[in-house]
Amino acid sequence: NTVTFDKVKLSDANAYDFDITINDALAVLRDIVDLESLTEGSNAFHAADINNDGNITINDALAVLRHIVDLEAIDTFDLIDSNGNRISELDATAAGEPPTWTLVANGDVNMSGGFDDVFVVTDMV
After folding, report:
1. What are the tens digits of pLDDT across the range 45-98?
2. Is 1 exposed, middle or buried (0-12, 13-18, 19+ CB in 10 A)?
3. Which among 59, 52, 58, 63 is positioned nearest to 33, based on CA atoms?
4. How far apart are CA 99 and CA 42, in angstroms?
5. pTM flag (> 0.70)
6. What Cα–Cα distance (Å) separates residue 124 from each residue in 101, 118, 121?
7. Is there a contact between 29 and 61 (Cβ–Cβ < 8 Å)?
8. Distance (Å, rounded) from C-alpha 47 to C-alpha 105?
9. Of 55, 100, 46, 56, which Cα lies nearest the Cα of 77?
């Protein structure tokens, strides 16, 4: 079976500290006005593209600002592969080497948030 999705949401809201601040909003705005470009495919780009439309626009900046003033919460992640592509489909029958994926917190452009220690597991093979 194949599962299609747009964003990832954690079952425990306390697992991750979404440290979304005015600095994140400014990074989005700087990209929009071409002062400091966010590299397409980078974690920062995916974090800034809140609505996952492939572009960083004023709508994304407004979403970050709404979060900051508690009008609308951002509590989702994007699943990113090792090539910087957003994953939106999982195939349960996939075989081969396991992929390397990264969860990128939407809105946290400067990556200042983090998982609570209780939810971090180190796998030692």
Report:
1. 999 999 999 999 999 999 999 999 999 999 999 999 999 999 999 988 888 888
2. exposed
3. 58
4. 17
5. yes
6. 17, 17, 9
7. yes
8. 6
9. 46
In b/e form, how buried is each residue of 71-80, taking b as 16+ CB within 10 angstroms?
A: eeebebbbbb
Q: H/E/C letters for each residue in the chain?
A: CEEECCCECCCCCCCEECCCCHHHHHHHHHHHCCCCCCCCCCHHHHHHCCCCCCCCCHHHHHHHHHHHCCCCCCCCEEEEECCCCEECEEECCCCCCCCCEEEEECCCCCCCCEECHHHCCCCCC
What is the mean predicted confidence (pLDDT) over 12-17?
90
Token digits for 111? 């990556």
Q: In this structure, which amino acid lies at residue 89?
A: E
